[in-house]
Structure prediction request, 128 residues.
Amino acid sequence: MFDNFMSTPYMDDDLATRNWLPAVNVKETEKNYEIEVAAPGFRKEDIRVNVEDNVLTISAEKREEKENKKEENYTRREFSHTSFSRSFSLPPNVNDGDIKAHYEDGILRLTIEKAKEQKPQRKTIPLS
Prediction:
């Protein structure tokens, strides 16, 4: 009986609590580094991109709550929490003061311009 209760349709996978690491592509060109992060299901407001002490951190958090009334005396209330955090050490040849971030269609794209050595700083990068 308990096995049946814990399986679908009662436990909908979309409403589960999940922590996962998104797939990341890193490409180096002559002028910059390009990073793509697959983060579907998030809104731009859910995502944070920070640089501190030459470490780039990309994180996101999404919380949802859903309540379904099935019958007069029964209520089902479910919530979900999905989050991730990825950190990358930046090479010394980047200009961490000139990082551009854009999120569209579930893909976060970062462009980090190459430069001569620059001292570490703390900065939050806005998404467009």
